Amino acid sequence: MERDLASLQTQGKSVEETYGIDNLHLTVARGYVTKLLANGRICRWLEHHRQEYLGEFQKIAEIDSIGPPPRRSA
Description:
The structure is a single chain. By secondary structure, the protein is mostly helical. It is 77% helix and 0% strand. The chain has three helices and no strands. It has helices at 2-37, 40-49, 51-61. α1 crosses α3 (51-61) and α2 packs across α3 (51-61). The chain is elongated. The two termini are 17 Å apart.
């Protein structure tokens, strides 16, 4: 049990350390997808050839913010 707790604490610290850069990457990717969807030709192509991608890209573009980092428990 103690070993499992130590492992979880290590994993938690790893998530906390990479949260900022991961959030930045996701924000940049969302901005890129939003810009692509602003192009009518790209939207039409996706609608005709990859409709499932278009739906997923639209969901990504509609994301307002990424959730806060996980809280550390004492």
